[in-house]
Amino acid sequence: MTEPAIRVRDLEKSYKDLHVLRGVDFDVARGSIFALLGSNGAGKTTAVRILSTLLKPDAGSVSVNRFDVATHPANVRESISLTGQFAAVDDILSGRENLVLVARLRHLSNPGRIADDLLRRFSLTDAAARRVATYSGGMRRRLDIAMSLIGNPPVIFLDEPTTGLDPQARIEVWNSVKELARQGTTVLLTTQYLNEAEQLADRIAILHKGRIIVNGTLDELKQLLPPAKVEYVEKQPTLEEIFFAVVGDDSNAGT
Ligand SMILES: Nc1ncnc2c1ncn2[C@@H]1O[C@H](COP(=O)(O)OP(=O)(O)OP(=O)(O)O)[C@@H](O)[C@H]1O
Ligand SMILES: [Mg+2]
């Protein structure tokens, strides 16, 4: 058995009387995508902040890339990147300039090549020279994720990566995240969108009232419900299906 990329045991965190995390346990396998689902205020961001060393837990243990967050926070920080809900990109610079800037700040050699490589991977080459102020929400988000990958961290945290994006931009981000995992990066993402977890995650955990109440693959989760019954229903298209039928389903980059 290889060591998981992320291991969380008996994690607890309270803000005064508010017991947000009441004993959270989960593992994330290397190179997999793990979705932490939960409603507003469930404690997803709190968990991500603890896993990324920004917040100290009250009890429990967390290791990331084999490093304990309590005893080796600097090693953990070197192993991860964190993309928060709001894009941390500079509007005045172009997409390429943003990437080059971060590569320079990290003292990497050949920042230009790193930038061009990421622009290609995130389908932003055509927009590379444009000011980020002119980018769409999906493009900004992709640039934000690309920036967080500079230096190739083995583990990335994405806190609600697609909140506020339209369905098409969401698919663009999903494709980027899938590609990351395909290349071996471990991804932990939080989301409130059930279909996002369904589309992306190898495993899905639901955080509810301070605990993980369900943790499994999509197929395992489906088995928690009674077997599907065959019924005759007149199926109305979903709004999402209508949206794609009308705008076309090509998740074209650069638009
Ligand atoms: N610094 C803080 N001080 C006091 N309470 C806090 C603090 N940070 C978070 N909380 C509370 O802890 C609970 C969990 O918050 P958290 O941000 O982790 O939830 P979340 O699952 O990320 O929610 P959302 O889906 O809205 O982002 C909420 O009730 C929130 O108000
Ligand atoms: Mg949150």
Summarize the structure.
The protein is α/β, with parallel strands linked by helices and 255 residues long.
Task: Please specify the SSE layout and strand pairing.
Layout (H helix, E strand, L loop, with lengths): L5 E10 L2 E11 L4 E5 L6 H8 L7 E6 L2 E2 L4 H7 E4 L11 H11 L5 H11 L15 H12 L6 E5 L7 H16 L3 E6 L2 H7 L2 E6 L2 E6 L1 H5 L16 H9 L8
Bound molecules: adenosine-5'-triphosphate and magnesium ion.
The CATH class name reads: Alpha Beta
Measured by DSSP, the beta-strand proportion falls in 15-25%
Largest sheet: 6 strands, mixed
What gross morphology would you assign? globular
For the biggest β-sheet, the strand order reads 6-7-8-3-9-10
GO molecular function: ATP binding; ATP hydrolysis activity
Subcellular location: Cell membrane
GO biological process, one term: response to antibiotic
Organism: Kibdelosporangium aridum
Task: Give descriptors for this structure.
single chain, alpha/beta, Rossmann fold, 6-stranded mixed sheet, 4-stranded antiparallel sheet, 10 strands, binds adenosine-5'-triphosphate, binds magnesium ion
Detailed description of the structure:
The protein is 34% helix and 24% strand. By secondary structure, it is an alpha/beta fold. The chain has a single domain, classed as 3-Layer(aba) Sandwich (Rossmann fold). The strands form 2 sheets. The chain has a 6-stranded mixed sheet, with helices on both faces. Strands 2-1-4-5 form a 4-stranded antiparallel sheet, with helices on one face. Helix 6 (167-182) links the parallel strand 7 (155-159) and strand 8. The radius of gyration is 19 Å and the shape is globular. The chain starts with 5 loop residues before the first strand and ends in an 8-residue tail after the last helix. The structure holds adenosine-5'-triphosphate and magnesium ion.
